[in-house]
Amino acid sequence: MAIKRYKATADTTIVNAFKPNLQIRGTGSNMGMADIMEVFSIYGRATSGSQELSRALVKFPTATISSDRTAGTIPGSGSVSFYLRLYGAKTSRTVPRDFKMVVNPIFTDWQEGVGLDLNTYKDETKGNTGANWMSASNTAGWNSVSGGGDWLSSSADYRYEQTFETGLEDLEINITPLVERWVKGAGAGGIANYGVGVKLSSSYEARATASVGTDQSVQNNRTGATKSYYTKRFFARGSQYYFKRPVIEARWNSVRNDDRGDFYYSSSLATAAENMNTLYLYNYVRGELRDIPNIDNGDPIFVNIYSGTLDNSAPSGTALTQVLYTPQTGGWASKGVYTCSVGIAAASTVVSPLFDVWYSGSIQYFTGSIKPNVLSAAQTVAKPVYFMNITNLKQNYRGNETARFNLYIRNKNWDPTIYTVANNDPEVLTIASASYRVFRILDAYEAIPYGTGSDMCTSLSHDVSGNYFDFDMSLLQPGYQYAFKFSFYDPALVSWSEQSEVFKFRVEDYEY
Predict the structure, then answer these.
(1) Angle CA 469–475–478, to nearest 5
(2) CA nearest 96: which of 200, 22, 18?
(3) To 10 degrees, the CA torsion angle through 112, 64, 256, 305?
(4) Which of 37, 66, 226, 356 is surrounded by the fewest CB atoms within 10 Å?
């Protein structure tokens, strides 16, 4: 899997906006149980130059992120990106355009509260549990005398910004440096996790001078806006819409391109890098991937390539000297997984099949077999059409399981003879660049879009058996039927091409 979502554990909206009578501000109100969060700025509604603001606060479970990293569920620092995702909620009110929002960590702990009213601000805390504009909790106020939350923005790791052109966009910001600081914690060079605040940037919040009158809750913003930006709404964690709740989404590239089933002899038609083939060794001990003793302590693992025959199906003679682009030193890829890159000279000088022997010192750990292909030019333009099938697809999956899917692919115009069918294994085609998406059958809602950007979070791996990928079913709402769709990258067209096949399955939340 290459996506993991961490749902918000608390959220609320705080305001210094006026109540409907335009006389009293709702600074004591709490909206922690509302299914919507709201961000806005209103200038000059109550009086000339009056300021009314709304901001959102959201917390996420850093401890869960840390424990998942320890368990190997998500990669270590530097190999994973974290995105804050808030989903826009439709509203009958005016939606502002062309503005910027900022996200900063909060450095004071706060309480979610149980208020609901986002319109008249009647759910005041009155000393009970819940944050409001002036208080972080029922026992502590904000450090700022004018309230509005305690925002940490002293470095680039603490300030994130997104532009909204139409005002209808979702908020999606890469906050990886911040999450990594949360994971470290306050005692180890990081910071305590009290969540983030979301507000309009200072140039879009209403202009005001805090010293005017006796209104303590006014924010001192002398360069702010003299127009209103009302109102941008986001779904809160209590929303009935499963896929719209606020999350931190971890994304990483988990692709393993094992060329054992797509191995090519070196050719003058390709560059030195393109002539390299990547091989993997998977060390399973009683069904679990385990590091090879001593190898994980710094001892190297080496790979020699031997030629052989189909009759003896075993390596023979001495290691090939035609191995190109050394070293043939293997490397540790992940727990129990090792990798090596090799290039083999032209087919005319080497007997097929080949055998890769993984060893260290006098110990041989593994011997694999390879059936190399020969790279050749063509006289026609490729017009690929594929047949596809998920060979291990089930009808139902548990909502808390991670499943591995094996995707069988071959050319659709494959036309074997009776002899070929009777004597050979079915043709398996490997797609080097493939991606999946998931949508809900009921309404075609795209639950997981194609992730083919820098994180490559929905890309498929491949090995000798073809393409495969892992998928975490907890990303989907149980009780519904979903479907996989696949897209392949076509280098000739410099474009992704979505395939026609649809593979349906259902996610259930079993209570027994």
Answers:
(1) 115
(2) 200
(3) 160
(4) 226
Exposure string for 112-140, b = 16+ CB within 10 A, e = fewer: bbbbbebeebebbbeeeebbbbbbbbeee
Give the DSSP H/E element, type plus range, for residue 408: strand 402-411
Mean pLDDT confidence for 7-11: 98
Q: How far is CA 352 from CA 345, 347, 421, in A?
A: 12, 8, 22
Cα–Cα nearest to 107, from 192, 15, 188: 192
pLDDT band at 314 (very low <50, low <70, confident <90, very high): low
- DSSP designation for 214: T
How does pLDDT run across 354-393, given as a tens digit for each residue? Answer: 888 898 888 889 989 888 888 888 888 877 889 999 999 9
- Token pair listed for 104: 């900063």
Distance, CA of 49 to CA of 215 (rounded, Å): 13
Q: What is the three-state SS of 233-288? A: EEECCCCCCHHHCCEEEEECCCCCECHHHCCECCCCCCCCCCCCEEEEEECEECCE
CA distance 478 to 473: 9
CATH code at 386-508: 2.60.40
CA distance 318 to 311: 18
Q: Which residues pair with 29 in a beta bridge?
A: 124
31 contacts 113 by C-beta, under 8 angstroms: yes
Q: Say what the pTM is.
A: 0.91
3-state DSSP helix/strand/coil % of the chain, to nearest 5: 10, 40, 55
C-beta neighbour count of 5 within 10 angstroms = 17
Q: Residue 59 is encoded by which pair of tokens?
A: 């917390």
Overall average pLDDT of the 252-266 stretch: 92
DSSP character for 368?
A: E
* Pairing of the two strands 386-390 and 434-440: unpaired
Q: Which residue has the tokens 């058996």?
A: 465
